Amino acid sequence: MPHAQCPMPTNPYAWLEQSLATIHRADWYRSVQPINGRPGATVILAGQEVINFASNDYLGLAGDERLMAAATAAIAQFGTGSTGSRLLSGHRQLHRELEEAIASTKQTEDALVFSSGYLANLGTITALVGKRDLIFSDQYNHSSLKNGAILSGAAFVEYPHCDIAVLKTQLSQQRQNYRRCLILTDSVFSMDGDLCPMPALLAIADKFNCMLLVDEAHATGVLGKTGAGCVEHFGCTGKQLIQVGTLSKALGSLGGYVAGSSTLIDFLQNRAPTWIYTTGLSPADTAAALAAIKIVQQEPQRRAQLWQNVHHLKNLLQEQLPNLKLLPSESPILCFQLSSATDALIAGKQLRDAGIFAPAIRPPTVPTSRIRISLMATHEAAHIEKLVTVLKDIN
Asked: Which spans of this chain does the record mark as coiled coil (predicted)?
């Protein structure tokens, strides 16, 4: 049925200002904040030195001299850009070395490096499923998973966060009506800090003949005995699943990856549009990520220090702020909820004024506003203790 006729706008861009006004009224407006100098546990933010609890640089590698040396050496040898897609002029031996290192870390047959984690998810999902297929996605999944599902054209169903019972019921009712089925989940949910029920998801994927894609963005380098991620943490290494992740968080560089069977990787090289039609990852980013993986393997004490910091903060909060509404977390991400976006903005400003950078996270990124605290291996005990002191003052 055709839409009712609307009057022709005199300015086809006028709606932009109206939309921005709505965003402002809802306290959802966002703007960038300049950070000067190297990343680290403390940073200079708009001219003010603050303790940085907003970073995903969990192991403190983004400012590591060894990553910087690897990046500059790669630039000296290969230049600043890859100059084309990997299938044309953009492939370098460094890319293959990085893919082999990721596959070794993940204990998979192969891996494929993308220019970002977002592109890895978009390209992989759209290559695997289409209009005759079905996707089930956790309600709290990252935007890249959700948008990949929408772009695929597959039937898209969101199940309640980590609710295996509902997912099982939905699969039993709908799976038989579709050619292929793909289950999508974050392994660590980045705005909550909790983990997906991976063993249960693998079991249900097997029962209903589904593919399972797990986004390890916030788990790689952080969880598991060797830092391989949630798959290792849950003892699921070697199971049939698709692992996607990023090189830009604990690995301190830029880019994304997919790890899995050699058949999967071969297929994605021929069907993933965000790999085929995108310039290859820069030599500097590739070399930095490769250096980071070596450090993760050779320096488990970094990961141990990160978890020591997590436990120190949790213990202090439990002792000194028992009424703080912390969300359940099994990761270096701790969040406490606030009643409104306005309250979250006020709390974020109070923290900032006291020298703590832990900004407000608001809808539509999350369903309820919160302050997100992200710990790093390079945080000192004094940094964590100051955070707790400031939280006591503003709570």
From this structure: none
Give residue-wise pLDDT tens across range 27-38.
888 888 888 889
Dihedral sign of CA atoms 76, 78, 84, 85 in order: negative
> Are 205 and 212 spatial neighbours (Cβ–Cβ below 8 Å)?
yes
Full-model pTM: 0.94
pLDDT one-digit tens code per residue, 235-254: 999 999 999 999 999 999 99
Largest CA distance in the chain: 66
Give the closest residue to 152 by CA, choosing from 122, 178, 176, 181: 122
Task: Characterize the bridge pairing of strands 356-357 and 333-337.
Answer: unpaired
pLDDT digits (tens, 9 = 90+) for 186-196: 999 999 999 99
- State the alpha helices, DSSP H only, in the chain: 14-25, 65-78, 93-106, 117-128, 143-152, 164-174, 198-207, 230-233, 262-271, 273-276, 283-298, 300-320, 341-353, 381-394
DSSP string, 320-360: H-TTS-BPP-SSSEEEEE-SSHHHHHHHHHHHHHTTEE--E
Tokens of 326: 């912390």
Q: What tokens appear for 233 in the block? A: 């943490």
- Band of pLDDT at residue 71, cut at 50, 70 and 90: very high
**DSSP reduced 3-state for 159:** strand
Domains in the chain (CATH in brackets) are 31-58+299-393 (3.90.1150.10), 65-298 (3.40.640.10)
Beta strands 242-246 and 42-45 are unpaired
Instruction: For residue 378, name the pLDDT band (cuts at 50, 70, 90).
Output: very high
Three-state secondary-structure class, residue 147: helix
Residue 387 predicted with pLDDT over 90: yes
**What is the Cα 263 distance to its own chain's centre?**
25
Reported as half-sphere exposure (CB side, CA atoms, 13 A), residue 148 has a value of: 31
pLDDT band at 274 (very low <50, low <70, confident <90, very high): very high
Helix (H, G, I), strand (E, B) or coil at 128: helix
Per the CB < 8 A criterion, the answer to whether 50 and 350 are in contact is: no
Dihedral angle at the C-alpha atoms of 207, 210, 211, 215, nearest 10 degrees?
A: -80
Please report the pLDDT score of residue 364 as a whole number: 87
